[in-house]
Amino acid sequence: MGINVIGLAVPFFLFFIGLEYWHCRKKGLNHHSFAESIANLNVGIAERLTDVFTTGLFFYLFTYIYKHFALFSITPHWYTWVLLFLFTDLVWYWYHRLAHEMNIFWAVHVVHHQSEDFNFTVAARITIFQAVVRSLFWSVLPLIGFPPEMITLFLLIHGLYPFFTHTQTIGKLGWIEYLFVTPSHHRVHHSSNEEYLDKNYGDVLIIWDKLFGTFVKEGDSVKITYGLTKPLERHSFLWQHFHFMLEIGYALLHARSVKECWKIIFGKPDNIDPANRDKLEKLFFTAPPARTKNNKAQHTYIIVQTGVSLLLLFAVSLLEKWLSVAQLTIFSAFIIVSLINTGAILEQKKWVFYLEYARLIIVLGGIGYLVQETITVTVLLFLAGVAVCFFRTIQNYYCRYLFDIVDEQQG
């Protein structure tokens, strides 16, 4: 068994994220905020991690459709690769457009538009739910008759291009603007300016937007505001993923007819009352969004946690064929809890300390399961006992280290 070369995508994209950040710092461009960048990376880490478990399932789905329902038998030639490119990009356009026009799809796509920054980290802000939905759309490709091997290889290549359209550092690109999606076009798409809403859905080619009437050119004098029309204002990892699903559920609970339920599920996001989110936040949160910036200790701790999560993600992605299901589960559980942990610290939540104990249990339990030696298990049980006996002492030190400076500033 060899390494999974797809795992190399992690350092590849991180290199360009770092390069863009360095360029912006050098030029004095304020295109990155700490909390937004970390939140974007957290979502991307989770999506890439779950891809380890789901990519094979998508290939199996494509293979099953191709073998049992393919309308034609298409073989690899230069012209069939061109056709695959055009079909893939067209399917993406309609998936993307429907993801903005139907609540059931917007619920999984909204996460990508939550960031109020616009830089390469936003390209990573893709959820596993979105990956599943768009793969269902791409299932039309094996139905037409494209072999699963062609589809899978092309989707890997096709996925590289849109990463580079998520930036403010590249201006307009002359004649390229007429054919391809450029950063200028995609800045319009991520804008919450009224004149730019629901425009420029293309992934690689901009011709579909021009053909179907959804194209708008970026104005030279328009100041773009990024993010949702009703900003999320929270960095909770779980809330980012599930808030709109909960808003749909809340609206359905208060619907008065089948027709209204239909509009809530298949209608536009405008059919969901924005006040629903405020009501749900009062139910799930005990305080409004934190307005205090993270202090130096939190910055350091979050950066270290994110770095560890990225290293583990790289190892899991690269070596997944060498790891057992148990090992993959242990590493994945640690990463997911770390992502929730980071989001809670960004939100100044002191209950985050209990997540630290959850991570400790995962680490100790994982070592015990993998090693299974009497002396090792004994030492691990001793460490667990110490952690329980000195719970309050450790908690006080932890909270003083991470939160006392913030409390003093708040008075």
UniProtKB/TrEMBL annotation:
Positions of the Fatty acid hydroxylase domain: 81-214
Listed transmembrane segments: 6-24, 45-66, 78-95, 301-319, 325-346, 353-371, 377-394
MF GO annotations: glyceryl-ether monooxygenase activity; iron ion binding
Pfam families: FA_hydroxylase
A cellular component annotation (GO) from this entry: endomembrane system
InterPro entries tied to this protein: Fatty_acid_hydroxylase, Sterol_desaturase/TMEM195
UniProt GO BP: lipid biosynthetic process; membrane lipid metabolic process
Keywords: Lipid metabolism, Membrane, Oxidoreductase, Transmembrane, Transmembrane helix
Localization per record: Endomembrane system
Membrane topology: Multi-pass membrane protein
Stretch forming the signal peptide: none
Protein name: Sterol desaturase/sphingolipid hydroxylase, fatty acid hydroxylase superfamily
Species the sequence originates in: Filimonas lacunae
Lineage, highest ranks first: Bacteria, Pseudomonadati, Bacteroidota, Chitinophagia, Chitinophagales
